[in-house]
Design goal:
The complex is a heterodimer of chains A (339) and B (464).
Chain A: H1 3-37, H2 41-73, H3 75-84, H4 86-109, H5 114-138, E1 143-146, E2 149-152, H6 154-159, H7 161-188, H8 192-223, H9 225-233, H10 235-253, H11 258-280, E3 283-285, E4 289-290, H12 291-294, H13 298-326, H14 330-333
Antiparallel strand pairs in A: 1-2, 3-4
Helix pairs in contact in A: 1-2, 1-5, 1-7, 1-13, 2-3, 2-13, 4-5, 5-7, 7-8, 7-11, 8-9, 8-10, 9-11, 10-11
Chain B: H1 2-19, H2 27-65, H3 69-103, H4 105-137, H5 146-175, E1 181-183, E2 186-188, H6 192-196, H7 201-231, H8 235-269, H9 271-278, E3 284-285, E4 289-291, E5 294-295, E6 301-302, E7 305-307, H10 310-316, E8 322-323, H11 339-365, H12 374-400, E9 405-407, E10 411-412, H13 413-416, H14 423-451, H15 454-463
Antiparallel strand pairs in B: 1-2, 3-8, 4-7, 5-6, 9-10
Helix pairs in contact in B: 2-3, 2-5, 2-7, 2-12, 2-14, 3-4, 3-14, 3-15, 4-5, 5-7, 7-8, 7-12, 8-9, 8-11, 11-12
Classes of the chains: A mainly alpha (339), B mainly alpha (464).
Bound molecules: CIS-heme D hydroxychlorin gamma-spirolactone and protoporphyrin IX containing FE (2 copies).
Residues 32, 35-36, 39-40, 43, 104, 107, 167-168, 170-171, 174, 392, 395-396, 399-400, 402-403, 406, 413 of chain B line the site of one protoporphyrin IX containing FE.
């Protein structure tokens, strides 16, 4: 495999990882707040905080890893995105900062503050919406290079049907992934009331997810026909994704094998995300940056890949350890071990 | 007398402000200010993030080995406060990480090609730290063998120290860019490892790490001393004070020694930075070190304290060696002269902390001494904020001292900045964010420890 392709694959895998873990986290924030205002918090909030408490910082690192890696492998993305995205990027950052720190403040310090809960819940939906904009922009049409500087066409973005359908997809997928995961976690904890409630959320959010995906498809056809054509070449990936979705929902509906169901959710997004990614190539940022023009030099590319492989030897066992302790340890999950 | 003092004071302010030449607030200046604000805020939490794990790990280890519940409680309580500061460190770190691309796109596009490796490695270090911190926090009573829990703290210490190391190499690279060639504006012959281990790396990384350990120790000592003054000296607080002050002493000495090496690095590789910091205008042998003072209208130094030959010693470890003066550099390529005060503040505080912790240890060893003498305790209370002040002074000195370069002798700061027109608004947005985070972080910490004092927690722990 060419080194460029290897680089973008590595980054894409991490972005996929972030998509899953962050969706769980973002959605959980929303459900926790929703539980609070509908007076159901006593049912689900234990489950949520037991899972989230040990892993929130790990979630954040996935994100940092992605953007640092992107600038490492493709330095010119720093130039284009950096110049154009100062304002939306900064707003996203502020939201992310508020969310992360208030989680810690609320969880370890001042328990039970409604304001913290609200901020935590609201940012859980706003952040995916604002982060997804970066992907929207990569389709082209929202920035132009003129007079030696890059201009971001804010008005185009806000009036584009495509961009809104992506925002919609981001929000509903967050709620869908999160409720699917929490359903599994609750079943593992043998917490029946929580399971019942979360299962309802999961089923509720599945139709909008698939609807939003279709919307994105259709609007991309207008926005970037070239990319849309490429996607058709990979349509088998999207069919696989649909199949995984149906399986997952069916399992949850039948109230069996919640773990397998979540595995299928992960596969559903894996196929869709990689189908989207591979058909996007060779462009990183349409039409300015491609795999080849944007790539850092060969030497640095190799150094980064070596660093990455060496890093994996450290990360995989550690990730396994934390999952073993907090995800697969029945006693912890059931709350017999808290603190 | 007083009038004269006031005049000197006014002169200092004039110079500090005038030294920057009050440039207009264009996007370059605003980007610098926003970077400075984010880093100035992040560095407080980052420093504690590097240093505090070492003390936690040390306390837990002593506690297990001596079967001393006091030390284990110490580790637990420090950890609880630490989680809150880590959170702020993490989110502000994410801010600075993205802001580097948002505010300095051209700089990152160039620098990323050469120095991307340590930035990337740093994220692995974070990953490692984050995973084990998560485990550490929720497994206090999970293992039969207490050493297992302690073992989990080791990767946290390694991870945070490694992240400080990697990020320091990036900053070192900005001071001593090596590992590539510029040919017709193209970057060629890139050697990532040479860039990472540039001439500034050894002193910079070790100085940053040792000051982080030292600062964490004095901050924790300050809190302890304050509690002793308020509540009297229980066995628990005495142990905490002794442990933190001893650690502080060790790393204060290390810091001073490494700081001396940093001076030698500057003399060799960035002589104009050293000259600007020392107000050393003419190249001469046996140069004096100037402490304090002001510059009069003719640019001459007044009211200063001179330490004969000390600058030559700092620069080359030889009292008669020659030190290059500012006169040898074009004026538009040297830093503003107010960095002199920042250097003095940093070194002054460093010396003071060595002295203070030394005095405390002397009082402990010497039978007639009273280490809980109130004036001494109050001075220890001040040592925490002072150490943080020294960190800030050190960074601003180092960064402003590099001006006008963002990449020393390669790229000017003004060439690296964004061309966006909205930096000003973003500055206000982030200022509001940091004020919010700072205030709430402080209140949460205060509330946490007030609601759950060590004494009650210790009783509960014994019952278990
Ligand atoms: C608690 C903080 C602290 C203390 C007590 C000291 N330093 Fe420091 N110093 C730093 C915190 C710091 C820092 C924040 O970590 C800096 C800023 C950038 C860097 O690399 O480290 C720094 C930079 C720095 C530099 C500039 C290096 C460069 O720009 O490349 C020199 C020459 C010294 N220090 C020398 C000293 C000496 C001789 C000290 C005597 C005791 C001293 N420092 C104490
Ligand atoms: C270790 C990595 C660091 C990097 C990569 C870095 C990068 C930068 C950059 C790109 C600028 C703008 C250009 C310039 O003015 O030189 C800057 C300025 C500045 N930074 Fe750093 N910095 C680092 C560490 C720090 C830290 C930890 C502080 C904490 C106090 C700091 C304080 C400042 C200040 C005060 C300025 C403004 C100086 C001025 O422009 O007048 N720096 N830094
Ligand atoms: C330009 C300079 C810097 C950048 C770009 C930067 C970047 C970051 C980022 C992205 C994070 C969050 C990582 C996460 O999600 O866990 C972070 C946190 C952290 N940073 Fe910085 N950082 C800079 C300066 C420094 C310096 C100078 C130090 C050490 C003295 C440092 C030490 C840390 C530590 C230890 C953390 C982990 C959080 C904590 O324990 O408080 N950083 N930084």
């Amino acid at each position: 495999m060419e080194i460029q392709l290897l680089g973008i694959t590595v980054l894409w895998i991490f972005l996929y990882g972030y998509l899953i873990v962050a969706s769980i986290d973002f959605g959980a924030g929303f459900f926790a707040y929703y539980g609070r205002i509908t007076k159901k918090d006593h049912i689900i909030n234990n489950i949520i905080s037991r899972y989230l408490s040990p892993v929130w910082e790990v979630t954040n690192v996935f994100f940092v890893f992605f953007f640092v890696g992107l600038v490492g492998f493709f330095p010119s993305t720093a130039y284009y995105y950096g110049t154009a995205l100062l304002v939306p990027g900064s707003i996203g950052l502020v939201l992310l900062a508020i969310r992360g720190s208030f989680y810690a403040f609320g969880n370890y310090g001042a328990k039970d503050s409604n304001l913290y809960m609200f901020l935590y819940g609201a940012t859980g939906l706003l952040i995916p919406a604002s982060l997804s904009t970066a992907l929207t922009i990569s389709e082209g049409g929202f920035m132009v290079e003129e007079g030696g500087t890059v201009v971001f066409l804010v008005k185009e973005l806000f009036t584009s049907f495509y961009s809104w359908s992506v925002v919609f997809l981001a929000i509903v997928s967050v709620l869908y992934i999160s409720s699917m995961f929490l359903t599994f976690y609750a079943s593992k904890a043998k917490d029946l009331p929580a399971l019942e409630l979360l299962r309802k959320y999961a089923l509720f959010w599945s139709p909008p997810t698939i609807l939003a995906s279709f919307l994105v498809f259709m609007s991309l056809k207008n926005h970037n026909p070239e990319h849309f054509q490429n996607m058709l070449d990979y349509s088998y990936l999207f069919m696989l994704s649909l199949f995984c979705f149906l399986t997952a929902v069916w399992l949850v509906y039948r109230k069996v094998r919640y773990g397998t169901a979540f595995l299928f959710v992960m596969l559903q997004f894996f196929f869709a995300f990689f189908g989207y990614g591979v058909s996007h190539l060779p462009y990183i940022l349409y039409p300015y940056i491609t795999l080849d023009t944007g790539f850092t030099n060969e030497t640095m590319g190799i150094a980064l890949v070596i660093a990455f492989i060496a890093g994996l030897f450290l990360l995989i066992p550690s990730l396994y350890l934390i999952m073993k302790m907090f995800l697969f340890d029945a006693k912890y999950v059931q709350g017999d071990r808290v603190k | 007398m007083i009038v004269q003092k006031v005049n000197v004071f006014i002169r200092i302010i004039e110079m500090t402000v005038g030294g920057v030449d009050m440039p207009e607030l264009d996007s370059v200046m605003l980007s610098r200010l926003l970077t400075a604000m984010t880093l100035g805020f992040h560095i407080i939490f980052a420093t504690l993030g590097v240093g505090v794990p070492l003390l936690i790990s040390g306390a837990e280890w002593i506690g297990i080995r001596r079967k001393d519940e006091h030390y284990r409680l110490l580790a637990r309580r420090w950890t609880r406060g630490f989680v809150v500061t880590v959170a702020v460190g993490v989110v502000t770190g994410t801010c600075i990480g993205l802001q580097l691309s948002l505010l300095w796109p051209s700089f990152m596009e160039v620098a990323g090609q050469v120095i991307g490796l340590p930035l990337f490695l740093e994220t692995f270090a974070f990953f490692f730290e984050a995973i084990f911190l998560g485990i550490y926090l929720y497994t206090w009573d999970r293992f039969k063998n207490p050493y297992y829990h302690w073992l989990i703290s080791v990767p946290v210490v390694i991870g945070s120290t490694a992240s400080a190391f990697f990020i320091s190499t990036v900053n070192a690279f900005m001071n001593a860019p090596t590992g590539f060639e510029l040919k017709n504006g193209e970057i060629v012959d890139i050697q990532p490892l040479v860039a990472m281990f540039n001439p500034a790396t050894p002193t910079k990384a070790s100085h940053v790490i040792s000051t982080a350990y030292m600062t964490a120790a004095f901050v924790l000592a300050a809190i302890t001393a304050f509690l002793i003054l308020r509540k009297g000296k229980s066995e628990y607080y005495k142990k905490a004070l002794h442990f933190t002050m001893l650690t502080g002493f060790v790393f204060a000495i290390a810091t001073a020694i490494i700081g001396d090496f940093s001076g030698k690095y500057l003399a060799e590789y960035q002589p104009e930075k050293l000259a600007a910091a020392e107000w050393h205008f003419e190249t001469e042998k046996g140069a004096d070190l100037i402490v304090g003072g002001v510059l009069n209208e003719d640019g001459e130094v007044e009211h200063e304290l001179r330490i004969p030959n000390a600058l030559s010693i700092l620069a080359h470890a030889d009292p008669n060696s020659e030190v290059i003066g500012l006169e040898e550099f074009p004026e538009d390529e040297t830093a503003p002269l107010f960095i002199h005060y920042l250097f003095d503040v940093m070194v002054g505080i460093g010396m003071f902390l060595v002295f203070l912790s030394g005095l405390y240890l002397l009082f402990v060893k010497w039978r007639k001494g009273n280490p809980y003498w109130r004036p001494l305790l109050w001075t220890i209370v001040a040592s925490g904020p002072l150490a943080i002040l020294a960190i800030e002074a050190g960074w601003i000195f180092s960064e402003v001292g590099r001006q006008p370069w963002v990449l020393w002798h390669m790229m000017k700061t003004s060439e690296g900045a964004t061309t966006s027109e909205h930096v000003g608004q973003m500055f206000i947005l982030f200022a509001a964010l940091y004020i919010l985070l700072g205030t709430i972080c402080t209140t949460v910490l205060l509330k946490m420890f007030r609601k759950n004092p060590a004494e009650t927690e210790f009783e509960q722990m014994k019952k278990r």
